[in-house]
Design goal:
Elements (H helix, E strand, L loop, with lengths): L11 E11 L16 E11 L4 E7 L7 H6 L4 E9 L2 E7 L4 E11 L2 E14 L8 E3 L6 E6 L4
Antiparallel strand pairs: 1-2, 1-9, 2-3, 3-4, 4-5, 5-6, 6-7, 7-8, 7-9
Pfam family, one: FBO_C
Protein name: F-box protein Hrt3/FBXO9 C-terminal domain-containing protein
Organism: Albugo candida
Length: 153
């Protein structure tokens, strides 16, 4: 029964690829951009859960296979946070230098196995590190974090 209970996995990381198009900002530092062109922006969000209830969070431009060393070294782009699992839901709180970011996710299964996906239900941030100031809600569109297993972490 304990094996069937929804939980997060610890021997890898969960990742989400975010992609969108935008018009480039044309100014004197970007003369090579032709007017009327469109840029595709691609970045990734990562969660690396640890057994003590903490996690490492990062937003990077690199795909999952290239970020293992960044998490091992815990560079400046990696932020430490806490998580709590209740039934099939995960609440994540990450303190960054400028704000507090929170995520609410639902643990799911895919064809590859159990607990290998996290559906993003809510994502918001507080503008001040002490949870005061403006609250910014982000659109989630039911995005799903996928699991990437790594023996190197």
């Amino acid at each position: 029964m304990l094996c069937r209970r929804p939980h997060v996995r610890y021997n890898g990381l969960y990742w989400l690829r975010i992609s969108y198009y935008k018009k480039p900002e044309w100014n004197m530092w970007t003369p090579e951009i032709t007017p009327g062109s469109v840029l595709q922006v691609v970045y990734y969000r990562y969660f690396y859960f640890q057994r003590d209830g903490t996690l490492l969070y990062a937003m990077l431009f690199k795909p999952p296979k290239e970020v293992i060393n960044i998490f091992k070294k815990r560079g400046i782009k990696v932020h430490k946070g806490e998580f709590h699992v209740e039934r099939n839901r995960v609440l994540i709180t990450v303190n960054t230098p400028d704000s507090v970011v929170e995520f609410r996710l639902q643990i799911g299964t895919k064809g590859r196995g159990r607990n290998v996906s996290l559906k993003l239900l809510e994502h918001y941030s507080f503008s001040e590190p002490d949870r005061t100031g403006w609250i910014v809600n982000f659109d989630t569109n039911g995005e799903v974090f996928r699991y990437y297993r790594s023996r190197k972490l």
